[in-house]
Design goal:
The protein is 31% helix and 16% strand. The protein is an alpha/beta fold and 374 residues long. It comes from Pyrenophora tritici-repentis (strain Pt-1C-BFP) (Wheat tan spot fungus).
Length: 374
């Protein structure tokens, strides 16, 4: 292989190492092995070794020392994942700020305020930002002047929330953070943990976050996912639901120009004190007409059903299912829709009814429709 042109060797290494080390694959083994073959391979692999960095407590000192002694290596770095820090050390933040070609930053900000990443948001090169272990914080008057800037570079934002001591309606710092972005195209919201330590991503959280990122929804946002995970479905929520209800996230979503959407139907329910029938709250008018792909998770509300009722086909929950499946047939409403996925969670006694509803309505589908029962 030593006789092969260097350009071809570079292409081979690129293909073998795709994807480069990241949050889900932190191994540099193959690259390090290749670098030991010869000087030519070392010269080629070195650019890939430092193109995507993984930094954590155990390798921090060695990595910082290497990059300090060989500053020319920093120009290779396009992405970095900073993981498992309880608090983000200043020396790590300073290191990130000195990477001239950094495009992708994946960072755990455990126990840090969002204001800690303000210097990062001012970097002109970053286009992808992934924040993990984010907790809601109140904003103080002295902090407000720190957020008087905008970011026109970041187009992809992913936020994984951890549990917080405050409710969504009081998350002023998150509101200030969201207002910074002016060219956001992709926004993905999820929880970093499962079980009791997970942040409750419920309907109030959905309404608050959509309202916080209202400018993005009204302008550049094209891809949005919200991973609902509230097992209590709001019954244990301690915030003021009346506050989030006034945000009218449904209208913001409907008037957006989203092309790709992943959502739970419970997020689209109207607040209980204004809702008559659930089926009246769900339907084509909830969603933007610009959709290309749609992934919907739907939980059949078993509390609205009577297991001994003989004709559940006429129940409101059956009407909900009918409307949801029928979305795939609404070509006039969704002229650009290319694919739809509907994941349905339902009680055992409703399975036969759901199967009949889905079978009848899916015949009218105008686009590929994937149905999943859970």
């Amino acid at each position: 292989m030593e006789k092969l042109p260097e350009e071809l060797l570079d292409h081979i290494v690129c293909e073998v190492m795709n994807p480069l080390p990241n949050r889900y694959n932190t191994s540099y083994g193959y690259l390090l092995d290749l670098s030991m073959v010869s000087r030519k391979f070392r010269r080629i692999t070195e650019t890939y070794i430092y193109r995507s960095l993984i930094m954590f407590g155990d390798n921090e000192a060695e990595l910082l020392q290497t990059m300090s002694s060989r500053p020319e290596l920093s120009r290779h770095t396009r992405g970095i994942h900073i993981m498992a820090y309880y608090r983000l050390p200043s020396k790590v933040l300073d290191f990130v700020l000195r990477l001239p070609n950094l495009q992708r930053l994946d960072i755990d900000i455990v126990s840090c305020r969002l204001s800690k990443v303000i210097p990062i948001l001012r970097l002109p090169s970053i286009t992808v930002l992934i924040l993990s272990d984010v907790s809601l914080q109140r904003s103080y008057s002295r902090d407000e002047r720190d957020w008087t800037f905008v970011n026109d570079n970041i187009t992809y934002l992913e936020i994984s929330f951890s549990s917080s001591d405050i409710v969504w309606e009081d998350g002023e710092e998150m509101r200030s953070f969201a207002a910074v972005f002016r060219k956001l195209q992709c926004l993905h919201i999820n929880s970093i943990y499962k079980g009791p330590d997970a942040a409750s991503l419920n309907s109030p959280a959905f309404r608050c976050l959509v309202h916080m990122f209202k400018h993005a929804f009204e302008t550049t946002l094209r891809d949005f996912s919200f991973m609902y995970n509230d097992l209590d479905h709001g019954d244990m929520y301690g915030g003021d639901v009346g506050v989030s209800a006034r945000f009218d996230a449904r209208a913001i979503l409907r008037h957006s120009r989203l092309e790709h959407l992943m959502i739970d139907t419970i997020c689209l329910d109207t607040p209980r004190h204004t809702q008559a029938l659930r089926s009246l709250a769900l339907g084509p008018s909830c969603l933007p007409a610009s959709l290309h792909t749609l992934y919907v998770r739907h939980l059949v509300a078993s509390g609205n059903l009577n297991p001994v009722e003989k004709n559940l086909m006429h129940s409101d929950e059956a009407q909900c299912l009918s409307q949801l499946v029928n979305l795939a047939a609404r070509r006039l409403r969704f002229p650009h829709l290319e694919r739809m996925t509907l994941a349905i969670s339902l009680p055992a006694f409703f399975e036969e009814v759901a199967s009949r509803v889905v079978r009848v309505q899916s015949r009218q589908a105008k686009v590929p429709l994937e149905l999943m029962f859970m």
